[in-house]
Design a protein that fits this description.
two-stranded antiparallel ribbon; Rossmann fold; alpha/beta; Ferritin; globular; 9-stranded mixed beta sheet; 17 helices
């Protein structure tokens, strides 16, 4: 599939979403359209797997008769093999295509109830069956409650049962006509389309978008930074993983990643992340996403990671409970991040879980570079005692949906190649304006990565600062202290300005004289005295 065909497919999916959502908000319809796309993927995956298993028998999965002894025997064998290989199972009558055909009244209702076109009850049961097929298996945690946000009884879908059924049927029928090209194992067409839709929904969600999506240029930058010196990773971790886009971007940039770990607090976003992993063909045994509060109840604290990437929610509140002073993640610093701003608490958590040879890249608000009190103390400890800060990168403002603030990327390594210096990069002016946001293009991202790899000074762009100079600045990391981007203004020609003012004055006098003559013709006094009239 060509790039143009990919773009057309992605746009078509977005057009379908906009056409069918009616009065429903884009963020509300998101869970339905993405959930149904995921159901379609699971169905087509099962069908491809089953057809391969049945090839020697000259049988097709869709043709198996569920009400015959032979059909049931084949289905039982396929279920055992599928759950072991794919982690779940669907019967032929439960596939996306079968339900879509029934909903459009093109398929007989054999084995699916008495109604020929009412599918909500069947669909609810099928989605539950997918989850139940995993019970007691290694994949159970990755499928439990995965479809809980697809509430087919919600009034958002319509006022009456018929309205709801009609809308859901329309969505299924539209999606059923689209070929996601799953036979091409290298294309990842569906995964790309899913990411595209997540990004489009994020663009319309305003400030809430930060809960589940990191703009692709930022994801790409972080992924390139953590794989700059190591392409084969034992594992990668995101403690605030949202929809999982950052983790998937690292997996794409690296040559190989053994295991993907993430944690997410929001239940809906957690479900989205698990779907996103499976849609990108990450095997259920190769990822572990947990739903919990990372700072209060970390789920992977015993592990250490080769790569850590994160876009934590900016300056959110957290407990800052004194009980955390007994927690190894925070106790060594002697201070906790303020309860009103958890930014540094996330940094402390990630540093704790970073392996000795690992690299960590995190997006944070600019305030972490210079705010004092507890944050200043933690910042000084990271530099002076741990010496793990590797680079400070200033990004353009207006990069994030609903957040116009300036942001920075901090890169940390415990075993640094240049332990006497910290690299500062000011990339805040390197972007392209697209509608209401600033976008870093591939050349902007690559310039940052190349500068980081080469550890170079470039006038008005980057500076390698010694630890002594950072200490002299009282551990204030504000980028303009290290990268001079001052642009001298052109000298003002006072003589030329004076001549312009004289010319303007003469022109004004002529205008006044013209107005005064008109007033005299009308027999009224001019509203001002005309310069030079007494001469």
């Amino acid at each position: 599939m060509s790039e143009e065909q990919r773009r057309q497919l992605q746009q078509k999916l977005w057009d379908i979403a906009n056409e069918l959502r009616g009065n429903m908000g884009a963020d509300e319809f998101r869970d339905y359209i993405l959930g149904f796309i995921f159901y379609k993927y699971l169905s087509e995956k099962i069908e491809r797997f089953a057809n391969a298993e049945l090839a020697q028998e000259n049988l097709k999965f869709a043709d198996l008769q569920e009400n015959t002894a032979d059909g049931q025997s084949y289905i039982a064998a396929l279920e055992e093999a599928s759950v072991e290989e794919l982690g779940y199972f669907l019967k032929p009558s439960e596939t996306f295509h079968a339900v879509a055909m029934k909903g459009s009244n093109q398929l007989d209702s054999q084995g699916m109830g008495d109604s020929h076109n009412f599918i909500l009850g069947d669909l609810t049961k099928i989605l539950k069956n997918i989850e139940q097929s995993t019970l007691g298996t290694d994949s159970a945690d990755d499928f439990v409650n995965l479809f809980e946000d697809l509430d087919l009884t919600s009034s958002k879908l319509g006022r009456t049962q018929k309205d709801k059924n009609d809308l859901v049927t329309k969505v299924l029928v539209h999606l059923d006509k689209i070929d996601f090209n799953l036979d091409d194992a290298t294309a990842d067409v569906l995964g790309d389309a899913y990411e595209y839709l997540i990004g489009k929904f994020a663009s319309g969600a305003g400030a809430q978008a930060g809960e589940f999506y990191t703009p692709q240029p930022v994801s790409t930058l972080l992924a390139k930074l953590v794989t700059a010196s190591k392409q084969k990773l034992k594992n990668v971790y995101d403690p605030t993983c949202g929809s999982g886009s950052l983790l998937l971007r690292v997996k794409r940039e690296a040559l190989h990643v053994d295991m993907v770990y993430g944690q997410e607090l929001n239940r809906t976003t957690y479900n989205l992340a698990r779907m996103n992993m499976i849609l990108h063909d990450v095997h259920y045994s190769d990822f572990d996403i947990k739903q919990e509060d990372t700072l209060e109840r970390p789920q992977h604290r015993e592990l250490r990671f080769d790569a850590i990437v994160a876009n934590p929610p900016f300056s959110i509140r957290w407990s800052a409970s004194q009980l955390h002073m007994n927690d190894d993640r925070f106790s060594v610093y002697g201070r906790l991040a303020p309860s009103s701003k958890a930014d540094m608490a996330f940094v402390q958590h990630m540093i704790y879980q970073l392996s000795e040879e690992g690299t960590m890249a995190v997006v944070l608000p600019h305030g972490v570079l210079f705010r004092g009190a507890a944050e200043g103390h933690i910042r000084q400890y990271l530099i002076e005692q741990m010496n793990c800060l590797d680079a400070v990168i200033g990004l353009p403002s207006d990069m994030f949906y609903g957040a116009a603030i300036s942001t920075t990327v901090l890169v940390f390594k415990k075993c640094r190649k240049n332990p006497q210096d910290v690299l500062f990069i000011d990339a805040s002016r390197h972007f392209e304006r697209v509608k209401t946001t600033n976008v870093m293009r591939p050349e902007h991202i690559q310039k940052i990565v190349d500068t980081y790899k080469e550890w170079t000074n470039e006038e008005k762009y980057s500076h390698v600062a010694t630890l002594a100079s950072i200490k002299a600045n009282d551990y204030n990391l504000n980028i303009p202290r290290y990268v001079d981007t001052f642009e001298a203004k052109a000298a003002i020609d006072l003589g030329a300005i004076s001549e312009q003012l004289i010319a303007l004055d003469k022109s004004s006098c002529k205008t006044d004289a013209t107005i005064a003559s008109f007033c005299l013709e009308l027999g009224i006094e001019p509203p001002f005295s005309v310069k030079g009239e007494q001469a």
